[in-house]
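Notebook entry, structure prediction.
Reason for the run: the old model in the group folder had no record of what sequence produced it. Starting over properly, with the input documented here first.
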Amino acid sequence: MSEVTRSIRTMLFRREQAHILDTWHVLGLRGTASHDYEVADLFVPEQYTTWRDSAADRRENGPLYNIPLLTLYGIGFCGVALGIARTTLTAFVQLAQTKTSGGGLGAATVLRDNAVIQSGVARATGALRSSRAFLMQMLAEVWQASAASGALPLEQRAHLRLAITDAIEAARKVVDFAYRAAGTTAIFEGSAFERRFRDLHTLLAQGQAHLSNFESAGQALFGLEPTQRL
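New structure, fully documented this time:
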């Protein structure tokens, strides 16, 4: 089967030519308005279509366009995840300056003075910064390879997929820690935590965050053909 046969063809047409289906009633990421749509009896001229990741269809030859779309999607999703985690952790550190611990049982000390909280914030900070550093390293290496040869070796793609999925997983752990440590403050609408918690866990449903990505990356690192695209 040829690469083109296995690819997805992208077609561009005007929004008013599609019927938007009101289906995006979800836990989080509501602002994306990612509704379904359908078209009927629509002809799209060939010049408004392209095979995804087809070198022959490219009109630009820069490094960005050598990176597969699936990889770019992953980079975008993990950037959102890291941003949510960072702002959630920052909000918790601010909250911990004034919120008392003890679950309302009369404790006089604030959360920042609790050893468990101190350790948790340190570990969350380390995990977040480490995963981001790994991701940034791999993005730099991939960009250099793309600029130099236009090709991304399998091992390098595996490392980048590992960095993407690991960053999303690290973000999940940070958000879960902050949400739980914030106690009842986190559960109210409009707090600094509830929407970010919903958004992050909605993002986890995307294929870019799926734990099977670790399996495929591991297969590639062993020199095996991955069961799914990296």
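Summary: The radius of gyration is 22 Å.
The old model has been moved to the deprecated folder.
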